[in-house]
Amino acid sequence: PDDATAVLKHLIALDPDGWGWNVNKRGTRWFVAPAHIDLLTVIEQVTGPGRAREVGFTTHDSELT
Predict the structure, then answer these.
(1) Above 60 in pLDDT, residue 63?
(2) DSSP of the chain, one letter per residue?
(3) How high is the pLDDT of residue 64?
(4) Distance CA 50, CA 24 (A)
(5) Residue 29 backbone dihedrals phi, psi, to 5 degrees
(6) pLDDT digits (tens, 9 = 90+) for 6-44
(7) How far is the C-alpha of 32 from the C-alpha of 40, rounded, in Å?
(8) How confident is the model at residue 55 (pLDDT cuts 50, 70, 90)?
């Protein structure tokens, strides 16, 4: 949850077009963005290299959730 909150604040500051987020249940957040946004890189700018996959961020088709 702390990583997701930090990522959310970073995305808001960057203000890219076309991304979104939601909360499925307590402690579970998801982010989605079109292919033109390298969301994994954005997440790892906040969480550190490799950390996104450690905390459960996964890829699905051309989007990262």
Answers:
(1) no
(2) -HHHHHHHHHHHHH--TT-EEEEEETTEEEEE--TTS-HHHHHHHHH-TTHHHHTT--EETTEE-
(3) 43
(4) 24
(5) -120, 155
(6) 888 888 888 888 888 888 777 677 788 887 888 888 888
(7) 10
(8) low
List the structure tokens of 50. 């490799």
Paired tokens of 33:
């963005």
- Taking CA atoms, 12 is separated from 2, 5, 16, 54, in Å, by 16, 11, 8, 23
Tokens 């702390």, residue located? 2
Pick the closest to residue 5 from 27, 33, 32, 35 (CA basis): 27
